[in-house]
Amino acid sequence: MDGAWQRAALPLVMLGVLRAGPRHGYAIARLLEDLGFGTVRGAVLYPALNRLVDQGFIEAEWEAGQQGPGRKMLHLTAAGRAELGRQAQAWQDFDSAVARAIGPGVEPPAGPQERIPRAGQEN
Fold it and tell me: What's the whole-model pTM score?
């Protein structure tokens, strides 16, 4: 997946995978990769998770490790569930607009059309 697209969609998909229940950062990255989102590097993943914590959309709790160090478990807050709903609707609207724009037989809307001159041309 294109890196810019991945970074743009990352907050939405992280909220989406946390809807199913708490996960730690590595598990989120692995699940996203399994879902076809591509490899999410830690240098991209963890700052994005921290922004979601700062925004109040997810909370982090330390879980003691059974045989090793503890890890931070992340879970969705009520505000995060609401934000997921808003972002999911916005994504669906965006996806529909892109599909219409790149689909076969794209026609301009009915009505008078303003002609945009090319560089160096006059109206």
Answer: 0.77
